[in-house]
From TrEMBL:
Cross-referenced SMART domains: SPRY (SM00449)
Pfam families hit by this protein: SPRY
Domain B30.2/SPRY, chain residue ranges per copy: 152-351
UniProt xrefs under InterPro entries: B30.2/SPRY, FBXO45-Fsn/SPSB_families, SPRY_dom
PANTHER family with a match to the protein in the record: SPRY DOMAIN CONTAINING SOCS BOX PROTEIN, SPRY DOMAIN-CONTAINING SOCS BOX PROTEIN 3
Protein's name in the database: B30.2/SPRY domain-containing protein
Species, as recorded: Paramecium sonneborni
Length: 355
């Protein structure tokens, strides 16, 4: 079924009534909305298209009637519907379907049973049918039977690549500016991104282009356990909508939401506001940030604080919370409509955060 219409009923495993039937396409509603007067549920794309041609509800409801997203109580029922993936036929909660299908339809790495990764169109290893350096090495190892040849192969590869590029998960590099402290170098986790987010440059750059105007989240591969962590978010000049940037104590949730909508997320919102456990309101903070500049993020787990800077200028302590002392805590960012950024890691903590 095309994304512009609803879902075929035969794909559902627990849909027993017609409460979410869209009268326009006669399918189960996708991104459901309803009328404030008659309560009829429609596909979001269907009714949006209808309202571009007509100024009233399809049921000719009184003037002043509005079409908007369904209420939370109804949304909860909708989110519990189970639907089969159009590719693998496995059943999932409808709230998780888009992300699963985006992942499911991609070609799988030749070592998929081990790594669980797919191969995106921006992957530099696409022609080798592997997802990253680790799986490329694994394929080479499988082809080498002589231990001496294996040793020489790995030795040559280590010479050519920095250690941080050899590990898929969380490589650590030694930073001379901070003595013997290890500074983590990490990236965005391709398995933990909302629908429509694409990654490039070794998964350090992400970009979202979608029409639903719903926040989508990307979570980093690394979770801080203790001490002070620092990373930067560099703006993408093609960004049209402000980002929500911060940390999450949870790495597995519905990525087609903003992580800071929940109690496990703390974020700076590019509108110069803060967001924690809310998708609507938050106090003013700092300066605006959207399509230019570099945002510095400092998580101090020693005292449970989250601080931000913009272009090297300290903006202040955004949060002080006991929960920010307990790891793992993951860097996260939420994108809306047309937005992107680059993740920069491996830098020492700037002095402005240590004073």
């Amino acid at each position: 079924m095309d994304d512009e219409f609803g879902y075929d009923k035969v794909r559902f495993t627990n849909y027993k009534d017609d409460i979410f039937d869209c009268p326009i396409c006669s399918c189960v509603a996708r991104l459901p909305k309803d009328c404030s007067s008659c309560g009829t549920v429609f596909c979001g794309p269907c009714v949006d298209s209808w309202l571009k041609k007509q100024s009233e509800c399809i049921n000719r409801c009184p003037k002043g009637s509005t079409i908007k997203n369904i209420q939370k109580s109804l949304q909860k029922i909708y989110d519990d519907l189970e639907i089969k993936c159009s590719h693998c036929q496995k059943a999932f909660k409808i709230a998780d379907l888009d992300k699963h299908e985006l992942h499911c339809k991609l070609p799988k790495c030749t070592n998929y049973e081990i790594c669980g990764n797919t191969i995106g169109s921006t992957n530099e290893f696409e022609n080798l049918q592997v997802c990253d350096h680790v799986c490329m090495i694994l394929n080479k190892i499988r082809q080498i039977k002589n231990k001496q040849d294996l040793y020489q192969c790995l030795k040559q590869y280590v010479k050519e690549k920095q250690p941080a590029q050899l590990v898929q998960g969380v490589p650590l590099v030694l930073n001379q500016d901070q003595g013997n402290s290890n500074i983590p170098v990490f990236r965005w986790d391709r398995q933990r991104m909302g629908t429509g987010i694409t990654s490039s440059d070794g998964d350090t750059k992400i970009f979202l282009k979608e029409q639903a105007y719903m926040f989508r989240t990307a979570v980093a591969t690394y979770g801080f356990e203790k001490g002070i962590g620092y990373w930067e978010i560099e703006a993408d000049d093609k960004t049209e909508n402000e980002l929500k940037i911060g940390v999450s104590t949870c790495r597995d949730f519905n990525y087609n939401t903003a992580f800071c909508d929940f109690e496990f997320g703390w974020a700076y919102y590019g509108l110069a506001q803060l967001r924690h456990n809310s998708n609507a309101t938050g106090p003013s903070f700092g300066k605006r940030f959207k399509k230019e500049g570099v945002l510095g993020v400092c998580l101090n787990m020693n005292n449970g604080t989250l601080k931000f800077s913009l272009n090297g200028e300290f903006m202040g302590t955004a949060y002080t919370d006991e929960k920010l002392k307990q790891g793992p805590i993951y860097p996260a960012v939420s994108l809306l409509h047309c937005a992107g950024c680059k993740l920069i890691t491996g830098k020492p903590v700037p002095e402005i955060f240590l004073n």
